[in-house]
């Protein structure tokens, strides 16, 4: 099919014939109705031991519509068909498995072609067959195609002596690659080798969105996205890929065996993020730096390093993993499951039902509400450890834990998805977020005056949660859904950041108002205001800096948003001053400061205003290409997260909030300086807090120009002496 036109109905017969195996041939058109009525059927065909898994000949019937083959005469007719020419060579497999749908196994028994049940019912994952094994061929089905954003993958494993068939789908295009197992390599089957080489060169195409796909398989193992990996889906910073391969060695092995894998240089590195069980400190993503005094927090320097790593680095992820406990225990694959870390800070579940029908009667806007659900409106079919869950419901607050929601979890009397108790079933993994972002109402429009500092607590903890949930190669996939736990339509300057996590529209509670929804895979990620949490309430030990987790987050966002780091033709220091267009904390003599900077020939100076009139990607381009970033206390200084490693954040004045951006800079690992001599600044007035009383944040300031330039010079010296800055310029000069 070309473009977006009407699908063409294909009446050409498609046949996959395997040596010494009986097969079936069907067409899409005259078998479609029967298939829908019969459900998912698979045929088990006997074969002599030794032939199973070997490649036979590939034929394409081209004689038009053919009735289902039921006898050996028809088999002989098919066997005499010439090898593929203009036919349609298409691999076939169970349609639910093909589309990456876990499905359920009911009614999916394997049968011989005489109709007698000779197999056992088996689920989609880890199903077992008789040792005499019989390949699965002849299954015909016309599944509903996925939307263009669907990107399912399937891995099919052949029998011994074996090879693996990788099938990946892109719209209506199929490609097949064959990977050998050691047993097959040792078999020296030259005839099979030649057949495999021919198959490797073939593009397997469907001429319609209805795919007709029986395949030679012994067993099929699938997850949401499967393991037959398409390497173009690895959308990570190049420096992160070795860590990804270490986490998923099966993907690394496929890359090693695939000559088309573009990440060969990332293979073979002994590296790890830092939370893996077998991760050695010398191989971890980062090594904490604690050059300063701990001020009595701990007894030794080693304790200081360990404390920082646990508080604000991948050690925090490690602790969440170690704390995980099962709350809802499944017995069978179709059952529900739920596991959480302590205090219900992070949870993940399968086959979970949430009842949103009561939202039809809620008239008030929902945000930070702890009564969205009530008893029995969230649950699953499982062995429910109710006392265990109740014991962790000890931090009931909107943004501190999932206790306000999970305290109402209950055991359902039956499997909600299997029994069709759901109005909607969400097949893709779904992350539910309770975000720390408020919108400002103006007279004309509800616009997104969202505090960047608080909102990036949400994004950072979502990224950290991807690592906590890192159990599958699709860990960093954007083929997920995000549901924000409020009824406000999301709108903010920072909406571009969602692109780094999902390729789908962001949902809110209005999306499913009045419906009962079941989630195949559900994640309740780390929250923005957890007690002793990450970012907002992180109690950072004195004297330490450079969190690998914050560094990785910065790289991840910049990579996904495609923010470039521009090459330079000189060694000048790029200085950016962030100007405020708000009522308070304005720099009254800003023009003088800018003029003083411009008089220094070693500086490239720019003034920026970050507000809703400049999209966030453009803001990041300015920030990421700055060496010194200057601004008075305010949420805009959160941009320090995206400065280059050698940069300096100069908080012109902290307005008596000393630790906020100092701690964030320490976590990110960039140099922080601020105004020290209060006699060389002028405060416009005492400041007037909206709730009454004097307050340093609610007034404006002017600064001594000479002292300002001196502090900038201190920052410039740090930049010039930083090894990463020198390496960057050396690389730039080599390229030029």
Rounded to the nearest angstrom, the radius of gyration is 30 Å
Structural class, judged by helices and strands?
alpha/beta
The major beta sheet can be summarized as:
11 strands, mixed
How many domains, as an integer?
A: 3
The number of helices is 18
Number of strands: 28
Strand content: 15-25%
Uncertain runs: 1-187, 195-227, 440-448
Report the average pLDDT across residues.
76
Q: Could you say which overall geometry the principal axes of the C-alpha atoms support? A: globular
Task: Give the N-to-C terminal Cα separation.
Answer: 46 Å
- Give the % helix: 10-25%
Biased composition (Polar residues): 102-114
Protein name: EGF domain-specific O-linked N-acetylglucosamine transferase
InterPro entries: Glyco_transf_61_cat, Glycosyltransferase_61
Catalytic activity: L-threonyl-[protein] + UDP-N-acetyl-alpha-D-glucosamine = 3-O-(N-acetyl-beta-D-glucosaminyl)-L-threonyl-[protein] + UDP + H(+); L-seryl-[protein] + UDP-N-acetyl-alpha-D-glucosamine = 3-O-(N-acetyl-beta-D-glucosaminyl)-L-seryl-[protein] + UDP + H(+)
